[in-house]
Each structure stands twice: as C-alpha cells, then as structure tokens.
Amino acid sequence: EVQLVESGGGLVQPGRSLRLSCAASGFTFDDYAMHWVRQAPGKGLEWVSGISWNSGSIGYADSVKGRFTISRDNAKNSLYLQMNSLRAEDTALYYCGKDLGSSWSLPIDYWGQGTLVTVSS
Amino acid sequence: EIVLTQSPGTLSLSPGERATLSCRASQSVSSSNLAWYQQKPGQPPRLLIYGASSRATGIPDRFSGSGSGTDFTLTISRLEPEDFAVYSCQQYGSSGWTFGQGTKVEIK
Questions:
Q1: First to last CA, chain B
Q2: ω into residue A41 within 30 of 0, thus cis?
Q3: Do the chains contact at B44 and A111, CB–CB below 8 Å?
Q4: By C-alpha distance, which of A67, A46, A70, A44 is closest to A59?
Q5: Among A46, B32, B33, B77, which is disulfide-ready with B93 (CB 3.0 to 4.6 Å)?
Q6: A2 at the B interface (CB within 8 A)?
Q7: Strand blocks (E) in chain B
Q8: Residue A99 confidence class, pLDDT cut points 50, 70, 90
Q9: pLDDT one-digit tens code per residue, B43-99
Q10: pLDDT tens-digit readout, A17-66
Q11: How confident is the model at residue B30 (pLDDT cuts 50, 70, 90)?
Q12: Share of chain A residues as helix, strand and coil, in percent rounded to the nearest 5
C-alpha cells in the first residue's frame, strides 16, 4: 500500500525558514517523480514544485521560485521542501504527491494527508 | 502560465442526476495533459481522470472526461451519494502545473 507521510509543518514567523519532509513507502520511490502541492484554508489547490526520479529535472511555481528548494533522497525514500523567506501567503496545508511517471509530466496518483504551515508573527 | 477557469462554481443536483462540469484553459493544453480530481472535506484530492479522458485506477465508469485544446468536460453519469464533493481540473504539460479553482457538487 502506497503511503506518503508529511512532517515538519508548524507556526513560523514571516521571513523565517522551515523544512518539510515526506516519507514514502509501498512503492519503488526512485522510479517516480514527486511533487509538493499546497492548499490555503478554504481555497483551491496550488502546485508548488516537482522533481524527477533522479533529481535531474525540477520545476517551481513562480510564487515560490527563488525561495523554496525541492530535493529528494532516494536511499531514504524521502522528499523534502526547504522553504525560506516565508510570507503570510505561504500559509497552507502542504501535500506530498507521487507522480504517475518518472519525470513530473503526469498527474499525481497518490497524496499524503498534508502538513500545515502557518506563517504569522 | 495557463489559467484554468471552472464552471459553474457550484452545482446543485440530486442523486441519480447527471453532472456536467466545465474547465476552460486560457491557452491550448498540450497533448490533452488535463486531469480531474475529486476532493472531500478533510481529505486529500483523488485522481479521477488524466489525459483528458483516461480513468485512473479504480475509478467507476460513471465518471468520464472529454475535450481537447482549451475546453474540457467532466461528466458524472448518475450521481451517487459519495460523489458530492469538490472537483478540480489541472493541466500538467506546460512549464509549471496549474489547477482550476474547483466546482462544488452539492446535494439539492
């Protein structure tokens, strides 16, 4: 059974940093691209970032480019999101998602339950 | 960036009725790289349709997708009680993915 478990969320002040993690199990992690998608309270979904199976291809939403960094450790079956210079508008539930394919060119077929990030002073 | 606009915002229907949801893109979506997700309160999204018309694993055949270019449709042939939820479209072919704002299907 595919499982994705996010962690690392919490309350953080504007301008500070936070690192999210996603532990994956139940599938061959290094065969698939992975993503972070967020959802602000009561709002729609927003794709944040995607990374190919071997980290050779990475993409970011314009809203986080230059501030967030996605990475993965295939030996540890883990996905990460380093978030710097956080803003109030980054407040959201952050989901980790598994791509249908290897190169973040297909949609997400499995999602975690999310970790909540709140940016506030 | 491709902007996806979904309509209507809310659809009020009864169980057994047919639901037709629209997703319009601001520019052509390449290779029909359009997906539909269902989301219920407190749950992550669930992939229903990808490639505009291919059902994801385990999705009942009452769900169908169609369209190409800039106009796409999700149809639920006969609404079951568990189908009342928010539905979002997504394009995943261009540089950077985008989602529509969602259509809520509620019980009339």
A1: 35
A2: no
A3: yes
A4: A70
A5: B33
A6: no
A7: 4-7, 10-13, 19-25, 34-39, 46-50, 54-55, 63-68, 71-76, 86-91, 98-99, 103-107
A8: very high
A9: 999 999 999 999 999 999 999 999 999 999 999 999 999 999 999 999 997 667 999
A10: 999 999 999 999 999 999 999 999 999 999 999 999 999 999 999 999 99
A11: confident
A12: 5, 50, 40
The pair phi, psi for residue A111, each rounded to 5°, is -125, 150
Total beta-carbon pairs less than 8 A apart between chain A and chain B:
51
B107's tokens? 């019980």
Q: A62 vs chain B: nearest CA distance in angstroms?
A: 8
Cβ atoms of residues A29 and A92 within 8 Å: no
Most B-contacting residue of A108, A113, A116 (CB-CB within 10 A), to test interface = A108
Instruction: Compute the radius of gyration of chain B from its Cα atoms.
Output: 13
Which tokens belong to A79? 């996905």
